[in-house]
Amino acid sequence: MAERPRLSVVFEHNPPFQIIDAKDKGQGPIIEFAKLLIAVAKENADFRAEFNGKPWARIMERDAYHPNILILSISKTPQRVPNFIWLTQVYTGQQYIWKVKGRPDPEDQPLKVAVERNAHKMMSIRHHFGEENVYKSLNSAQALHALLKGRVDRFVGTVFAVSGKLKSLGHDMNELQRLNKFDDTGFASQGLAFALTLDSDEFIEEALRKALKDPRVEQARAKLQKQFEASEHKLMSEF
Fold this sequence. Notes:
Number of strands: 12
Number of helices: 7
Radius of gyration: 18 Å
Mean pLDDT: 90
Order of helices and strands: EEEHEHEEEEHEHEHEEHH
Shape: globular
Structural class: alpha/beta
Low-confidence stretches: none
């Protein structure tokens, strides 16, 4: 008998969307939605699926070039569009520049900013802050941690994402000051999405697309986006 096709679902530690817990398992609203999507897809298609949490840089440098990989919560940008099979959008948010509240900026020195490797914002952040002033980290939570520890002066992220990362690090929004909107013109994200790698099995792609039209999945996706939007609006009114 032929071996069943295998789908590898990969994701980074990116609270509040998804986290990699102490047992290296995926948790969070994006993971739960992805599990539902896979379960519904497998009702009418025979394939195996496994979830693997990894550093974002490893996903973009390795997994992105192999077939039958489903990447969770990847920012959809004009540069990335031709490189993946885009399935569905799960979140959209405005990027802002952040600093630690009350901490003075360095005098007569350029501002340093932290960003995860291979982030969609990397090119625009280099343009804005200067390539030599960019501090690279393995994931966005570590980049924000660098700001809190004073290794850098700025961080770029959405209100909702920053709130989730702060919470995971044992901090809260009162510690940061939200500055101006970040202009990432030319590299602007259309939001976080689920993307399948090129040359993936058409059998798997068709099963996932069919599952996305299932009422259970459509309802879960709509609920997910409404929850994200409501949380972000609440945070915006408070900070």
